[in-house]
Design goal:
This protein has 81 residues and is of the alpha+beta class. It is built from one helix and three strands.
Length: 81
């Protein structure tokens, strides 16, 4: 068994990968690259360690509340349904 355990949804094997994570809170979206996560090889469900979640919150806070410059800015189309 690995440090993430098996997937709680499909019981598939979970392996650690570096992923791109879309962090959404309030009316903000921040794309964070290189996030360590456990990813189910079968269904794709993602799992995060507590220290990773704390770091994600810190990065989000720095960009949107402390006005730290992001590495780059993406243009994202949006439409109404």
């Amino acid at each position: 068994m690995n440090e993430y355990g098996d997937c709680s949804f499909c019981r598939g094997e979970v392996e650690e990968k570096r992923i791109e994570y879309d962090y959404r809170r309030r009316s903000h979206l921040l794309v964070i690259n290189g996030v360590p996560a456990g990813v189910c090889r079968q269904c794709g469900e993602k799992y995060f360690k507590a220290q990773t979640l704390k770091r994600l919150d810190h990065v989000f806070h720095n960009v949107f509340d402390q006005h730290q410059e992001p590495d780059h800015v993406l243009e994202i189309p949006a439409v109404s349904f």
